[in-house]
Design a protein that fits this description.
19 strands; alpha/beta; single chain; eight-stranded mixed beta sheet; about 500 residues
């Protein structure tokens, strides 16, 4: 897992020769701890703010190097805007903004968890640390050289100044596991495909055993016995063996039905015989972002010992062109017994998910199933990169996902399903075909998946736009944000733990 800053909580103290970060509101008002530490500077901050036209607007920053009256290398003041309106999501964002103001050469920094009305609550201070952890993430393990004059970033000691360090540490304990789950998902997605192929992915998922997660790996021989021919068909052109990984966290009452999360794990997608254009194909190392999210989520839930029973299932394959590869026109019989005609071998993710969805639905009878997949470019045409597409057969589950998305900033937008779209994937030779053509491409893909969930409440998240080339935000500067871990952890925490 990528190393991040050494985060801790301590009483309010300015760092000697380090970076001090304070917050103010839209009226340039500081909290009591900040006012005390700034007392030796006189009106320095006020004069600098007037000179720089800094007003405390939300997210804005004022920076002073070697400020007179303080034994620090740098003083940073970050505007909160209207401090009374702040939510958990805002504190996470401000933690990211604050971490972004720590230079790569810095070895220590202190962020005062201080508001104009008094010290932040323990949970708010923990949210600052959460945002700082995510902002500090960088995937640079393969870099051996740096640009001239560029120092390798050091792991800074970042301390959150608080009035009650013990309470803040207690609040951070549960959030730290979630942050590490996001980081784990980012690491998996950012890895190159020559390093992270199906068996290696499965091996890394097995590391969850250390947290008490039960992990079972299904090899190709086992999948053949189960009849997972749709999944196996996708991987048959690769020299890398396909895998299915089943992860179980039993934190709820014994015998209680689990909740289930299923991830598409195409470790590299050439498109197969229906090969993709060469330009941009390198990004297809991330076609396993759904599976990465599920592994990160299982880490997050197990790390904070969530009081719920959870199934995480991922189908891991490579989609490669070869003499043994699946062809357009082939017909496969899925584990459910339904048949699919292959029209386009690049519509492979739905084939992987079809078998895994059926396996989970029939073996575990979950309360619900949510699958995540970088499934279609069509969803990016519809929604861009700000929302993931949500398709569901259950209104309550959809509503809960939407609210969790609004709360975390990992937003979803519900798209339609309907029998009219089913007609578009009717096949002359099989029960269905794996693509319905250009129009409504993300919808027809979801319609196919729906045929493998039975009566189980189900939601499909098409994350092609949000998980790869993720928007750069105050808490993400990575190619992949590890999208979905925070969303689904919040869903579970709000509605499915007792």
């Amino acid at each position: 897992m990528a190393e991040g800053p050494k985060l801790g909580f301590a009483p309010f103290t300015a760092p000697s020769k380090g970076v001090l970060i304070l917050f103010c509101d839209e009226k340039l008002q500081f909290g009591p701890a900040a006012r005390k530490v700034l007392a030796p500077t006189g009106d320095l901050v006020a004069r600098a703010a007037a000179s720089e036209k800094f007003t405390g607007k939300s997210g804005s920053a004022l920076e002073l190097v070697l400020p007179a009256g303080l034994d620090v290398a740098r003083l940073v003041v970050i505007g909160l805007g209207k401090a009374s309106d702040l939510t958990s999501k805002d504190f996470i964002r401000f933690g990211g903004i604050a971490m972004g103001k720590v230079p790569g050469s810095a070895t220590n920094a202190v962020i005062f968890a201080d508001l104009p009305g008094g010290s932040m609550k323990a949970g708010q201070a923990a949210d600052l640390a959460f945002g700082a952890r995510l902002r500090a993430y960088a995937f640079d393990r393969y870099k051996t050289k740096r640009k001239e004059g560029e120092d390798k970033p050091q792991v800074a000691n970042v301390s959150i100044g608080v009035s009650d360090p013990g309470a803040a540490r207690k609040a951070w304990a549960s959030r730290e596991g979630v942050a590490n789950g996001v980081v784990l998902a980012r690491d998996l997605i950012n890895e190159p495909a020559n390093v992270l192929f199906p068996k290696e992915f499965a091996r890394r998922a097995e590391a969850l055993k250390k947290l008490g997660v039960t992990v079972e790996v299904l090899d190709e021989k086992t999948m053949q016995k189960l009849g997972m021919n749709a999944l196996l068909g996708v991987g048959q052109g690769s020299v890398r063996e396909s895998q299915v990984v089943i992860m179980r966290w039993n934190g709820g009452k014994r015998g209680t039905a689990p909740v289930a999360f299923i991830g598409k794990g195409v470790c590299f997608d050439t498109g197969g015989i229906s090969i993709k254009p060469a330009s941009g194909m390198e990004d297809m190392k991330g076609d396993m972002a759904g599976a990465a999210c599920v592994v990160g989520l299982m880490h997050a839930l197990a790390a904070r010992k969530a009081k719920v029973n959870v199934i995480g299932a991922i189908g891991l394959v490579e989609n490669m062109p070869d003499g043994k590869a699946q062809r357009p026109g082939d017909i496969v019989t899925t584990m459910s017994g339904q048949t699919i005609e292959i029209i386009n071998t690049d519509a492979e993710g739905r084939l992987v998910l079809a078998d895994v969805l059926h396996y989970v639905a029939t073996k575990y009878s979950p309360k619900f199933m949510i699958d995540l997949a970088t499934l279609t470019g069509a969803i990016m045409v519809a929604l861009g990169q700000e929302y993931a597409g949500l398709f569901s057969n259950d209104d309550k589950l959809s509503e809960r996902l939407t609210k969790a998305g609004d709360a975390t900033g990992e937003r979803v937008w519900r798209m339609p399903l309907g029998p009219e779209y089913d007609k578009m994937i009717d096949s002359k030779f099989a029960d269905m075909k794996n693509t319905g053509g250009r129009w409504g491409g993300s919808i027809t893909a979801a319609q196919l998946l729906q045929r493998f969930v039975g009566k189980t409440p189900w939601a499909h998240l098409d994350i092609a736009g949000t998980a790869l080339g993720s928007p750069q935000t105050d808490i993400n500067k990575s190619w992949s944000a590890g999208w979905g871990v925070r969303l689904l952890e919040r869903l579970v925490a709000d509605h499915y733990e007792k």
